[in-house]
Amino acid sequence: MQISGSGPIYDAETLEARPYRLPAGNVYETRFSEDGSHMAFNLGDSRRTSDIWILDLETGESRQLTHSHQGVPAEEMVEPELIRFTSFDGLSVPAFIYRPKEIKQGMKVPVVINIHGGPVEQYQPVYQPVMQYLVYSGYAVIAPNVRGSSGYGKSYTALDDVEKRLDSVKDIIALRGYIASISDMDTTKIALYGGSYGGFMVLACMAFYPRLWAAGVDIVGIVNFVTFLENTASYRRAHREAEYGSLENDRELLEKISPIHSIEKIEAPLLVIHGANDPRVPFSEAEQVVARLEEVGRHVELLVYPDEGHGITKLRNRLDAYSRTVEFLDRALA
Questions:
Q1: Which of 186, 192, 224 is CA-nearest to residue 209?
Q2: Rounded distance, CA 5 to CA 26, Å?
Q3: Of the candidates 148, 171, 146, 145, which has an alpha carbon nearest to the alpha carbon of residue 161?
Q4: Which among 308, 332, 310, 312 has a CA at the least distance from the CA of 322?
Q5: What sign has the CA pseudo-torsion 221, 330, 149, 90?
Q6: Cα separation of 212 and 205, whole Å?
Q7: How much is the mean pLDDT over the chain?
Q8: With the CA atoms of 43, 49, 52 and 56 taken in that order, what torsion angle do they form, in degrees rounded to the nearest 10?
Q9: pLDDT tens digits for range 132-170
Q10: By Cβ atoms counted within 10 A, which residue in 2, 142, 175, 285 is the most buried?
């Protein structure tokens, strides 16, 4: 549920709607008390960390339970703009655009397309510290909810299943075309950034459409769906095969959509970041990328964190990885 300021809550038995006035911001991750008298929820927005609130459903009064620390003042953050662009097949795809606070007249800024993982996830206008850091560093950031994302209905979520996998990649290509219509963005300096499934999207875009990008950042991404499914934790395999296709029935398709078989076509510099203990997307995926690109003489850099798994979670590693990511982008897009 995403509400800004007010909205109805429905009685599950009577379907009666009752309007409530809520604090300004975006409401999500709701939980109801066992007796149905209260609702707990997270409240935040794109410039502030989220906090837990509780709503009394009888009186309509809300009160804040937690007060999260935020080191950077909200005034230093930017609000994203929600836009929609048209993909190759006419599909309307939503995206959030984060712009640097001050763009001088006639200036064009470099762009980072930030692709979420999942793929059944979605970007929302909530606090995104990495995107805010990239914006503070001088980059416009575009966060699309390509086909396969959640939050837009079951049909939208299923638009990238199995044999439709690369249609989501085409959404990013369409977004790149849309960027050309934005006067303050530099189409010669567009980088890709993504983690997990988003990392696959980065690698697929760079391998299958190599001349469109100035740089890429792949974080714990999939490069070979066959080896990924063979080596991922067994408890996840069946779940992932339902989304991507099975080793038994769809191996040929899995080979076709895997960027590893076109990885040598990548032209732009690539930064690969991975946790050595990743049980979901094993480190062997990153090793394949780096080995193949080094073999053909491409510019590839590797950051490995021995004490990380699927993603970068420890504060010291985040501070290191994200600052080195910006340094990499600054060099690549100079």
A1: 192
A2: 8
A3: 148
A4: 312
A5: negative
A6: 9
A7: 92
A8: -30
A9: 999 999 999 999 999 999 999 999 999 998 899 999 999
A10: 142
